[in-house]
Design a protein that fits this description.
Elements lengths: L9 H21 L5 H36 L2
C-alpha cells in the first residue's frame, strides 16, 4: 500500500503569513522615526565614537607590538 499524503493546508499558511505581516506593520507604526536633523546628529555621534575607539585600539595594539618586539628577539 502506498503512503497516504496529508493534504496541505495552504489557506492556514496564508492566514499565518497575513497575521505575521499585520503584526510587523503594527510594530512598525510604534517606532519613533528620527527627523533629518536627528539622523545627522546620531550618525555623527556614531562615526566620531567609532573613530575614537579605533584610535585607542590602534594605540594599544602598537604599544603591545613594541613591547613584544623588545621581549622577543
Amino acid at each position: 500500500m502506498g503512503a497516504v499524503k496529508k493534504p496541505t493546508n495552504t489557506q492556514g499558511q496564508v492566514n499565518k503569513l497575513t497575521e505575521y505581516f499585520r503584526g510587523v506593520w503594527t510594530e512598525l507604526k510604534k517606532v519613533h522615526w528620527p527627523n533629518r536633523q536627528q539622523l545627522f546628529t546620531y550618525t555623527g555621534v556614531v562615526l566620531i565614537s567609532v573613530a575614537i575607539v579605533a584610535f585607542l585600539l590602534w594605540i594599544v595594539d602598537s604599544g603591545l607590538g613594541l613591547v613584544l618586539a623588545k621581549i622577543l628577539p
